[in-house]
Amino acid sequence: MNVLITREADKTAKFAQILSQAGHTPFSLPMIECVPVDAEIGGYYDFGVFTSLNAVKYFDRYKDSVRFGQIVAVGSATKGAMEKAGFNVDLMPEEFSAEGLIKLFEGRDLTGRTFLMAGAETRAGNFHEWLKQNKCTAEIVTIYRTVPVQRTKAEIEAYITDNAINVVTFASPSAVRAFFDVADTDKTIVVIGKTTADAVKKYNKDCLTPKDFTLEAMTEIINSL
């Protein structure tokens, strides 16, 4: 299969390697890029919640000014990045989504607990609202924002045609929006998780989503096509 990767340029290599090892041919056309945002972060929080590799990457500059009682990582890749950065990850939801985070904390007495969620400018899911309903302090801090790479409809669709792309992949809602706000495709779409799948459905497109929200699981779906 010829597989299009739309994630950020600095994140393409790992997915391309996994696809190549499975016998596919990866092609990269980044649809988004991330830029840091200055923020004020400091003090103690009962829980630090990290939901992406970018959240870990852009939090690095603040890590010496904040302490956490427990750290929550959404996804095995995020967990690995946190540990590599020197943090101990205490909790990880079974489902890598806002719904998974809610299930992780359901039934606990969280009254008065403080949560820091440092990450993207735009967040998917309703976990922070659920926390507020459960009498927690949920502090959402923007430490980076995602911007679309400027491409034309003709450029994108020609790239897909010229490289005989069979499968288009998305690893974030922002990449979905950057793609479909400009172009269209009738190719098979494979995405990494529920929030990305929801973004695809808003454009009236069908997509395939693995049970485990990982690049390896995405590749397994592509293997089955």
What does this structure look like?
- This protein is of the alpha/beta class.
- It has nine helices and nine strands.
- The strands form two sheets. A five-stranded mixed β-sheet has the order 3-7-6-4-5. The protein has a four-stranded parallel β-sheet with strand order 2-1-8-9.
- Strand 1, helix 1 (12-21) and strand 2 (25-28) form a beta-alpha-beta unit.
- The protein is elongated.
How does the SSE layout of this entry go?
Layout (H helix, E strand, L loop, with lengths): L1 E4 L6 H10 L3 E4 L3 E5 L6 E8 L2 H7 L6 E8 L2 H9 L13 H8 L8 E7 L6 H7 L3 E12 L4 H10 L4 E4 L2 H8 L7 E4 L2 H8 L13 H10 L1
Parallel strand pairs: 1-2, 1-8, 4-5, 4-6, 6-7, 8-9
Antiparallel strand pairs: 3-7
- Number of H/I helices: 9
Q: What fraction of the residues are assigned to beta strands by DSSP?
A: 15-25%
Low-confidence stretches are none
Largest sheet report:
5 strands, mixed
Alpha-beta classification = alpha/beta
Choose one word for the global shape.
elongated
Helix-residue proportion: 25-40%
Q: Whole-number average pLDDT?
A: 93
Number of strands: 9
> From N to C, what is the helix and strand string?
EHEEEHEHHEHEHEHEHH
Alpha-carbon distance between the two ends: 9 Å
Could you tell me the radius of gyration in angstroms? 18 Å
